[in-house]
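SEVERITY: medium
COMPONENT: batch folding queue
REPORTER: lab tech (J.R.)

DESCRIPTION
The queue accepted two submissions in a row. Attaching both inputs and their returned structure tokens so the on-call engineer can compare them side by side.

ATTACHMENT 1
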Amino acid sequence: MTNITIIAAVDKNMGIGFQNKLLFWLPNDLKHFKTLTTGHTIIMGRKTFESLPNGPLPNRRNIVISTNQILKISGADVFSSLEEAIESCKKEEEEIYIIGGESIYKQSLPIANKLCLTEIDSEAKNIDAFFPTIDKSNWKEVSREVHPKDDKHPYSYSFVNYIKR
């Protein structure tokens, strides 16, 4: 079985972004994301890809989902659906991380078997993209690592892992 993990940073209202940008700048969250996803496959929508400041993320297989059939991206594989993207991940042991955005998260939640959420103890002022509602009867929290605010992190946050029941 393919391991599909959804990874996201969410505020108290499950907000994930505004105008195609992250809601919060938390250096430890970015390091955590890099540690988890390096060496693995990441799947994202086109808008999420466009939000990456330097193009494809290094040391990962980058997959972009776009309805634009002729889109070509140097350093990334492009597919027209989440199903096609996952099908291209042939090895059973391949770790797949879904990294956004809102539409891709909604599509992948039913097929994912793990959630890695950074739960930020704050409410963003402006939000136009949200993480889908998590049905807690389908997901079990298996770990929570709490971090207080500090000089580099203006909000407390927790790295929380869930597995599908």
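ATTACHMENT 2
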Amino acid sequence: MIETVGVVEACDSNKVLVRIEQKGCGRCHEEGGCGGNNLGNLLCKSPDSFWLKNPGGLAVGDAVTVALADGALYKTVIRSYLVPLLGLLIGAIVGMSMYEESGAIAGAILGLLVFWFGARSFGGSSFEPFIKR
């Protein structure tokens, strides 16, 4: 499970706005660390804020642990990158078999869009970060 610490900035009836100062899990210098914190700091200097489901009993200023379920990061990468790429390839192959080069181009674009929108619609709560109690 990937975890990081955040601070509650605002509360709503069923959601809280949590500010995350650290990008990544912070295990950059440990064995098995991927360096995501270093890359996150390189690409984005400002802290990020996210609306998350409120587990109840939180107030502005509370420190919370934000977690992401095991495997959710890999599933999100597959859903976001590999599924649309597969659609692009399938669309290009089908289009090429029907209308040669122009069909391959049109099929690749159509396949990419269909698989991308399809991948977006099959999300789930298992991919979303949550506040760990």
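NOTES FROM REPORTER
Residues 37 and 118 are 31 Å apart (CA to CA).
No errors were logged for either attachment.
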